[in-house]
Design brief:
alpha/beta, two-stranded antiparallel sheet, about 15% strand, about 170 residues, Rossmann fold, about 50% helix, globular
């Protein structure tokens, strides 16, 4: 594993897995949220510059790219990746995890979010999570089918994640 995509719905565990893989393998981690969002949850002001940055990262020989984005040079990311970890968890679990994350990290912040973007819970975000399976997931599967040639790992539960980490000689802390 040299080029890993961790992708799925908010609250699915992709950032946590990226941190575990990065810590254990030494692969550099790139959180798409950090690259895209600006302070106050404003989108990147220059879409072309965001796309260029993702393209630069994708061209490198080693990386972990974490994010639920189905845009941002998805074709290049998927065609260069040797491993895709696709989180496919129930929406109610993702909603619960986002709420729990909000309660536990509201004062601390998160390393996978840019400065000035505190954890948030609002109707729009919950609606995004609720609809992710119908709106974003088909795009992910389309990118996997069209552009990806490596090892696809589908995570449906914490047990699946532990099994994946065990299969590559890592344990979840």
């Amino acid at each position: 594993m040299n080029r890993v995509i961790a992708i799925g719905c908010s609250g699915s565990g992709k950032s946590t897995l990226a941190r575990i893989l990065g810590a254990k393998t030494g692969l550099p981690i790139h959180h798409l949220d950090v690259l895209y969002w600006q302070s106050g949850w404003r989108p990147h002001p220059d879409e072309a510059a965001f796309q260029a940055r993702v393209r630069e990262i994708s061209a490198q020989e080693q990386w972990i790219i974490d994010g639920g984005f189905t845009t941002g040079n998805a074709e290049e990311r998927f065609s260069r990746a040797d491993t895709v970890v696709l989180f496919d968890l129930p929406r109610l679990l993702c909603l619960w995890r986002v709420f729990k994350r909000f309660v536990t990290s509201v004062a601390k912040g998160r390393p996978d979010l840019p400065p000035g973007c505190p954890e948030r819970v609002d109707f729009e975000f919950y609606r995004y999570i609720w609809n992710y399976r119908n709106t974003q997931f088909p795009k992910i599967l389309g990118n996997v089918d069209a552009h990806f040639k490596g090892r696809l790992i589908r995570i449906h539960s914490e047990r699946d994640q532990a099994g994946f980490l065990g299969s590559i000689g890592l344990e979840q802390d």
